[in-house]
Design goal:
By secondary structure, this protein is an alpha+beta fold. The protein has two helices and seven strands; from the N terminus they run E-H-E-E-E-E-E-E-H. The protein has a single domain, classed as Alpha-D-Glucose-1,6-Bisphosphate, Chain A, domain 4, CATH 3.30.530. The longest helix has 27 residues, at 117-143. This is Polyketide cyclase / dehydrase and lipid transport.
Length: 145
């Protein structure tokens, strides 16, 4: 069984550099993502390759914590990280006219994702909706500034 990658794009009314700054400040992700409770860099190091951050997520009554490592940190261009020990990769890319692209890819299946094809499809749909909601909230936040 496999989970196909997800890619979503949105236009954000800001510069690529500002959009990068918003996303790379992972402590702000809870402002936009419906499932993120809190995120913080270890030792307040900020967005740089190799930096580690911890996130707390919540869906319904289920709460979990994850540790991530920054893979790319190119201001105005790309910010990516890997969750856990190579479990999931998230990539935010910033393009001209500030089109923000989010790519999500499962690298290693975990039992928490589901054990049947239907459960894995449901997990993917849920994740896609969360990405879409996050991009919408990020865009709306920039439109109301």
């Amino acid at each position: 069984m496999d989970i196909p990658p997800i890619r979503r794009r949105a236009w954000i009314a800001t510069s690529p550099a500002n959009a990068y700054d918003l996303v790379a400040d992972v402590s702000r992700m809870a402002e936009w993502s419906p499932n993120v409770v809190k995120v913080a860099y270890a030792d307040n190091v900020g967005p740089r390759v190799g930096a580690v951050f911890t996130g707390v997520n919540k869906v319904g009554d289920r709460v979990w914590e994850s540790t991530s490592r920054v893979l790319t940190a190119e201001p105005g261009k790309e910010f990516s990280w890997e969750v856990g020990d190579g479990v999931v990769r998230w990539t935010y890319s910033f393009h001209a006219n500030t089109v923000v692209t989010v790519d999500w890819q499962v690298l290693k299946l975990l039992p928490a994702f589901g054990s049947t094809e239907e459960e894995l499809r449901r997990f993917r749909r849920f994740t896609a909706k969360g990405i879409e909601d996050t991009l919408i909230a990020l865009a709306e936040a920039q439109c109301t500034r």
